[in-house]
Design goal:
Length: 482
């Protein structure tokens, strides 16, 4: 008890404001029973798993935490450090791209004498901060000091595909710390969210700019996510190239290679445009802008805006300077490299054949071959750059054991067509193979993979037997059209 008191007093110097009793009431422990999905055998569900994290009061009967703390939650409860009681909680909003979530607790008893923590500004480099939470190793509230060492764009591991501004500190972020506030001068200057597994005393927190963006987004009752300019660009360091493009001496910018077909700038910018300013802020030749003494990617300006807002791009086209307003929208392609949470996988068991959409979740669950991963990545790149694609790729993931499927060895075969028609998505594929024809021919990508002919009568005969023998209670899940 004495050691714990000394630990809290030592760490209190970075808090310089809120007393420890306020933190004990306002920073809660989160316990979660989560149940993900089995993308390798999607008709079954894995066993629930227990985990813990941290959340804190932001006012209006809401708690803020990480999305990864509460993803796929089946049971969720929270507890204050100054009480013994656990309270049932529920997820109101989750932003998996920025790893933030808001929780609600309906029991009014939780909120009595609980004060919200105020969101402050980003801390300065080399300033001291304090992480507050419930890390592994005990059940009591823990406060640990650290120093801000770096502020830059980092990959957010929860979604696997998104990058946002993050702040690096030398206080370790351990399991259980996630979702907890990082404090300075009595205010929240970040949310602890991820660490470096192969490094010591390196942790990351989500900065106030990302927190405020998330909270502003959900004010209308839903979470929309981040807008995407969707520009492929190149640095403009070469003097001869700048002269050729008509960039005056002393000015800077970046070269536009292509606007992505599914994002905000399509049909507004062109190849060989020079992007020189964004909302009036000069863009350096390496694509950075100066923000509060730091050089960050020019996309930082877009990060601070909501979908539907406008950004003004100063573009030099064939030597002439143009001001182009761009209404911001999200990435418009259905196909995405992000990990999906809180949703069921789509699948179809047809006799002894299992068909699924090809997704990042499937690749990670099955530890797929490098060839399949590479194909998926290259296909997504085509989607992003050209826009000429199907919305989903469909694969024959496996052949289930049965007398009717003997000698069939298909695995992760990518569907090219059904009776000569290319399915746009999984829903259309299911409709094609379950049409009114007695024989259906499925062709696959690659010259070394023979076609599969599905005989409706034989499939119907074997289907019930296979599902019964393998305990497949539900032979499909197909999302309805939105």
């Amino acid at each position: 008890m004495r050691k714990a008191l000394v630990f809290l007093l030592l760490a209190a110097s970075a808090l310089a404001g809120p007393d420890l009793e306020k933190l004990r009431a306002s920073v809660v422990q989160v316990q979660v029973a989560s149940q993900g999905e089995d993308y390798a055998m999607p008709w079954r569900r894995p066993q629930p798993e227990g985990s813990s994290g941290t959340a804190f009061c932001i006012g209006d009967g809401r708690l803020l935490t990480n999305a990864h703390v509460v993803s796929n939650a089946r049971e969720l409860r929270v507890k204050r450090a100054d009480r013994a009681k656990w309270y049932q909680a529920r997820v109101l909003f989750a932003g998996h791209d920025c790893d933030l979530a808001v929780l609600a607790v309906d029991d009014p008893d939780l909120w009595r004498e609980m004060q919200p923590l105020e969101i402050g500004d980003s801390p300065a480099i080399q300033s001291t901060v304090a992480t507050v939470g419930y890390p592994m190793g005990g059940n009591k509230l823990s406060i640990t000091e650290g120093v801000v060492s770096r502020i830059e764009v980092q990959s957010y591991s929860h979604s696997y595909a998104d990058e946002h501004l993050a702040i690096q500190i030398d206080a370790a972020i351990n399991p259980g710390n996630s979702g907890g506030p990082v404090m300075q001068d009595g205010k929240v200057v970040g949310v602890a969210f991820q660490g470096q597994f192969f490094a010591q005393n390196i942790g990351y927190m989500i900065p106030p700019t990302v927190i405020r963006h998330f909270l502003a987004d959900i004010e209308d009752g839903r979470y929309d996510g981040y807008p995407d300019l969707g520009l492929y660009t190149a640095e403009l360091q070469n003097d001869a190239l700048r002269d050729y493009l008509g960039v005056p001496a002393g000015e800077s910018g970046i070269l536009v290679l292509k606007p992505a077909p599914y994002a905000s700038c399509v049909r507004l910018l062109e190849r060989d445009d020079v992007l020189q300013r964004i909302d009036g802020i000069p863009i350096e030749n390496d694509g950075t802008i100066r923000v509060d003494g730091e050089f960050l990617g020019y996309e930082h300006i877009v990060e601070g805006k909501q979908i539907g807002e406008t950004v003004t791009l100063s573009v030099r086209r064939k030597g002439e300077l143009k001001e182009i307003p761009v209404k911001l929208r999200s990435w418009g392609a259905r196909m995405s490299p992000s990990i999906a949470y809180d949703e069921r996988p789509e699948y179809l068991v047809l006799g002894g054949y299992v068909f699924v959409p090809l997704t990042t979740n499937y690749l990670m669950a099955t530890r797929a071959s490098d060839d399949l991963v590479y194909y998926y990545q290259q296909y997504y790149k085509t989607v992003a750059e050209e826009g000429k694609s199907r919305e989903q790729l469909v694969i024959l993931s496996q052949v289930l054991p049965d007398a009717s499927t003997r000698y069939r060895t298909y695995q992760n075969a990518i569907v090219a067509s059904v009776d000569g028609k290319v399915p746009n998505d999984f829903r259309e594929f299911v409709a094609l193979v379950e049409g009114d024809k007695d024989l259906v021919k499925v062709e696959f990508e690659g010259i070394n993979i023979p076609p599969l002919v599905l005989e409706r009568g034989k499939i119907a005969e074997a289907h019930a037997r296979i599902c019964r023998n393998l305990n497949i209670a539900e032979d499909r899940h197909v999302e309805e059209a939105k």
